[in-house]
Write a structure and sequence with these properties.
Elements lengths: L3 E2 L14 H5 L8 H8 L3 H6 L4 H7 L2 H7 L3 H19 L3 H5 L7 E5 L14 H16 L3 E6 L7 E4 L5 E4 L11 E5 L2 E2 L1 E5 L4 E11 L2 E7 L7 H4 L10 H21 L6 E5 L5 H12 L4 H9 L2 E4 L10 E3 H8 L2 H4 L4 H7 L1 E4 L2 E5 H7 L3 E4 L2 H11 L14 E2 L6 H4 L2 H11 L21 H28 L5 H6 L9 E6 L15 H8 L6 E6 L7 H14 L8 E4 L4 H10 L2 E4 L11 H7 L3 E5 L2 H6 L5 E4 L8 H25 L8 H17 L2 H17 L2
Parallel strand pairs: 2-3, 2-11, 3-10, 11-12, 12-16, 16-17, 18-19, 18-21, 19-20, 21-22, 22-23
Antiparallel strand pairs: 1-6, 4-5, 6-7, 6-9, 8-9, 9-10, 13-15, 14-15
Helix pairs in contact: 8-29, 10-11, 11-12, 20-24, 24-25
The structure holds pyridoxal-5'-phosphate.
The site of pyridoxal-5'-phosphate has 14 residues, from helix 8, helix 24 and helix 25.
Length: 710
Amino acid sequence: MDFKTKPSQKFDLPKRIARLGELAYNLWWTWHPEAARLFGKLDYDLWERLGHNPIRLLQEIGHGRLTQAAKEKDYLALYDALFGDFDSYFTNESWSQKNHPELKNPIAYFSMEFGLHETLPIYSGGLGVLAGDHLKESSDLGLPLVAVGFMYGQGYFSQRISEDGWQDAINNPLTFEHLPVTLVTKNDKPVTIQIEFPDRNIVAQIWEVRVGRVALYLLDSNVEANNEYDRLLTARLYWSDLDRRVMQEVLLGVGGVRALRALGFKPAVWHMNEGHASFLTLERARELVASGSTFENAAKKTLGQNVFTTHTPVPAGNDEFPLWLLDKYLAKLWPELGLTREEFVDIAKHHQPHGETFSMPVLALKLSGGSNGVSELHGEVSRDMWKFLWPDREEKDVPIQHVTNGVHTANWMARRLNNLFENHLGGDWYEHLDEPAFWSKLDTVPDSELWAVRLHLKRKLAFYMRERVRDRWGHGGFHPVQVVSSGVLINPYALTIGFARRFATYKRANLILSDIERLLDIINRPNMPVQIIFAGKAHPADEPGKQLIQKVYRTVKKAETGGRLVFLEDYDMNLARYLVQGVDVWMNTPRRPMEASGTSGMKAAINGVLNFSVLDGWWREAYNGHNGWSIGEDKEYESNEIQDTADAEDLYHTLEHEIIPLYYNRDPKEISHEWLARMKNTMKTCIPQFSTRRMVKEYAEKFYVPALKK
Ligand SMILES: *Cc1c(COP(=O)(O)O)cnc(C)c1O
């Protein structure tokens, strides 16, 4: 290919360790703890202070320390071993090459957000983290995948919580020189693509991110050719204003296809991660119409290679646009498709009580050869929700399947656990990741060693919370009650429950607060204390979400809680890692069936944390009575009120009568063997099944490979 990515930042590195610069620009390092250690070892304090950012570390560390490291025997041994692994990662025969040599041309994967690492804040939550994990696993499996998204100039906001519990959103421009992105150029000029709106054109440049073997291309409208308003189009995730939203989605879908063309890719499959990217279906059809096809034929011809994944069981959560917005932004497109306005609107028309809209998921569903929800229950819910599009079919025959989500194990599992597995399951355990039978070997891991790892991870979380508060307190303007609410009084030996996720009201963060007296009794029991750590952001425009945070915070800071309830600011992938590795129990209380899948509970489970959750999304498939606990029943309730009351009662009862007694039932060495038995059960059942290893293979075999033959 004749395009280039602008040479990565030149670091002034000693020759012997010069490849650190290359490593800093490939996010491969983020899921290989030994690679992170290679950076950390240069200067641990600086590494922490810079938020695990290797590019900034290499910029700021100073030549003295680098020259020294380049002479240290131990450091060089680590360096050589690591780059040995790094190089063979790219040359070893992959799963895909071995099993699916027919997958040659790339799978193009489109997503509005990608959660790859906390230093690249171009994600808001679960959808993005799933997309990031999808890329990492595709790289591991050697799938020829190329991804498209946005390089947001300000990233997702940072969250501060005021003394009274109100969420403040902080938006700062990102410094691209500090980030693992390189501008794509040709003949020393940025490669750009253009979108024609009725009254003006918009130009975007393209940044490349390396994720192991996978390349991710990020569109960026902040270029001189655009007016000030349009330059902000890719400044933030999910503009609430519909004008910007529709323009963003045109840029992603249409602009994304054009970007891949400009870079010379010929994708064989086009995967839309959620409806935001649905316009890609129209751009692909337009390409054929331009060379003489009718729209109908073009749609038929391209449909087989389009794959659509829906993530939203809530009708209101789906993007749809009022028809007048189409006139404003898409009026140039329908003639190019050989369609009238009416025919165009008909493709994705959705009759709503408030009028007719143009629905992004309808567009994707109608123009994709394969569609899926993200858990078994979500597949059912989606078939029910969209069956009106196939009026002549029975609900069970509505062509929406399911692929249950997974998490990228190396990305989320604690290094200490990895070490334990290497000692007891063999150095090649990761190659058996998705083989359920392999995991019965966990019985050979001594209880005392697993318990010690769990205690270590909880202490690590406690120290981390303390250091975060020390930093905030040291900078001034932080009230003592905020210090206490941030976890300084946490006891690293007490039963600790984590609840961290986006603060949307259906997730019911306040369910456990519904009877405060009972909760206070639970957390303050003599000899059996319980602690609960909350974290999560609300979308800046979601007032009820922000009020929910405030409600939780006002309870957290009550003196009667004794500092045992905690709210941690600014939930991101780094905090998520500490939490899912460090707590004992992961609680999730969505209003069933609104949680399409959920993934944070999977991250917890692979670390031996026990889930305590509503039987919704993935947990409904994973729970077997011995690997955690359920909240409520596997059924629909008559009303929200009845469901909330029943779920709260069940939640308190299970905590009081099962979870707490089990945790504190110790042998003379202070170990709870029954707890460990559940822990091993959860790891045996969840590690193979809820990994992206299983998930991406399933996408390949259910969707990508069959698409080649359609
Ligand atoms: C995993 C993750 C999520 C998604 O969690 P859910 O359980 O799906 O709500 C959200 N935010 C961050 C930072 C995550 O790491």
